[in-house]
Specification:
This protein is mostly beta strands and about 425 residues long. About 5% of the residues lie in helices and about 55% in strands. It has 3 helices and 20 strands.
């Protein structure tokens, strides 16, 4: 009799899955890095760093006519971090990367609830930060509307860090997590409209940061515009920040302006050029004019060596970035990207110096059957201003500032069911 119940249960489950779409996939991404000036200038008497990390993800999606559910589990493993036969993970890196449900509300409306990646446009303000092995996510509730070429997202978040079942009563709503612009509350509206050759979006974002006597609110407002006509492409960003950032620091006149042009020379060559200006701190005590791009994929911008706005440069002299690039399709399965960037402060350093240096980035990609290999090399040629900015003299710094990496990407698909 029990076997009959089990069989009936299995048949019911199969019928449920058959009426929906179930996908199960994963990612295995080991990356080796040689760091000899990545993120900061390395001293002459310091040894270069080398290490290997792996991101492992297991993803499951379940889609029906009325709702979608998605779950992504991940661990970031640094080779050698655990001693032999250690009964637990040394760095406690296992995490639920995403866990959300999107419920259909009818006539283009839906709501998406839970831990999720929030990514828009070129990922300048909101991005998934996929380069970082841990990625970036948000615990949020979204109300979504989409019709034809128009979309609207309204996002809400309220963060808490109590660690026991009685936290609601005993801890109140004080949010003790700080750093990296971790917010207590968030509200935003994102609107996007597409036409034949032109797309425009508008972002209105408010972040509330916990203070001892309340909450500081920082507003980020701006637009992303793109134009595409044949082989020519143009995109631009314009954002302002006002209000208060963490520490009750008044933000006045902070801005980000960016413009990028692209041109497809042939089926095998794409060229690009652009500039970005990010305001720095020219205000008095308790104030700042410095813009920070908050929750974007900042590794994508201002050089791959991450000297600016990647956990650093948050209240400094700003940045003036001029860059040119070329993408070469070497054959059907491989490509090479070459990019040169010249950096200057948006304002003078105390010495009056502005020039920060030049960076060269190379990225090679090779697609094999079922997996891909990606490798890169970057070299920084610092100017006098970079030594001053990073607090090290040219004599004390290494004469070579570079970074090299290689990464294997495998994304097995275990199940891709359709109704």
């Amino acid at each position: 009799m029990k076997k009959q119940y089990v069989l009936i249960g299995l048949l019911a489950l199969m019928g449920k899955v058959a009426s929906a779409q179930l996908t199960i996939d994963s990612e295995f991404r080991p990356r080796a890095e040689y760091r000899n000036g990545f993120g900061n200038l390395i001293a002459e008497d310091a040894d270069a760093g080398f290490g290997i990390s792996t991101r492992a993800r297991l993803n499951a999606g379940f889609k029906t006519e009325t709702y979608n559910f998605y779950l992504s589990l991940q661990d970031v493993l640094v080779w050698g971090e655990n001693r032999q036969i250690l009964p637990y993970d040394q760095n406690n890196s296992f995490a639920v990367f995403q866990a959300w449900a999107e419920v259909q509300l009818g006539t283009g409306w839906s709501t998406k609830l839970g831990r999720q990646v929030i990514s828009y446009d070129d990922q300048r303000i909101f991005g998934g930060l996929d380069w970082a092995q841990q990625g970036r996510n948000h615990d949020a509730a979204l109300i979504k509307y989409s019709k034809d070429k128009f979309m609207l997202d309204i996002g809400l978040a309220f963060n808490q860090d109590y660690s026991n079942p009685t936290g609601f009563q005993s801890a109140g709503t004080t949010y003790n997590t700080t750093g990296f612009f971790s917010y207590k509350t968030m509200q935003y509206a994102y609107l996007k409209q597409a036409w034949e050759n032109f797309t425009g979006s508008l972002l209105l974002l408010n972040n509330g940061f916990q203070e001892t006597d309340g909450v500081s609110n920082l507003q980020t407002l701006g637009t992303h515009l793109t134009y595409k006509n044949g082989s020519f492409g143009l995109s631009g960003n314009a954002f302002l920040q006002t209000g208060q950032r963490q520490g009750e620091v008044d933000v006045k006149g902070a801005y980000l302006l960016g413009l990028d042009l692209s041109y497809k020379v042939s089926s095998k060559v794409d060229l690009g050029a652009g500039l970005e200006i990010i305001s720095g701190n020219d205000a008095g005590a308790g104030e700042t004019g410095a813009f920070f791009p908050l929750y974007g994929t900042n590794h994508k911008f201002n050089g791959l060596m991450d000297y600016f706005y990647v956990g650093n440069h948050a209240n400094s002299v700003g940045l003036f970035d001029v860059h040119v690039s070329a993408n070469f399709k070497l054959n059907e399965t491989s490509s090479l990207m070459v990019k040169a960037l010249n950096f200057s402060g948006e304002q003078d350093l105390p010495s009056g110096e502005k020039s920060l240096g030049t960076e060269i980035d190379l990225v090679f990609k090779k697609q094999f059957k079922g997996y891909a290999l990606v490798a890169g090399y970057s070299h920084l040629f610092p100017s006098d201003g970079m030594y001053e900015l990073k607090g090290i003299t040219e004599d004390a710094a290494s004469g070579t500032q570079n970074w090299a990496w290689t990464m294997l990407v495998i994304k097995p698909k275990f199940l891709n069911g359709t109704n």
